[in-house]
Design brief:
The chain is of the alpha+beta class and 65 residues long. 34% of the residues lie in helices and 28% in strands.
């Protein structure tokens, strides 16, 4: 299984928006993206990379589009 790419929050946001997700709301440093009933929560800290589990969720969600 290939390694999950290291993503920043900005890169993850670009992938989700390109896959048809919309920014539903944000609370604190977390942004919630929705497409239908599917929800993805991305912690938005500028300059930090996302945890590999979150990056995997983002990549999987963007590929399902």
């Amino acid at each position: 299984m290939p390694k999950v790419p290291r993503l920043t929050a900005q890169e993850a946001e670009a992938l989700l928006l390109a896959a048809g997700y919309v920014l539903a709301r944000s609370r604190g440093s977390h942004r919630i993206y929705m497409r239908g009933q599917r929800r993805i929560v991305v912690p938005f800290h500028v300059g930090r990379t996302l945890h590999p589990k979150i990056a995997k969720q983002v990549v999987k969600a963007s590929e399902m589009a």
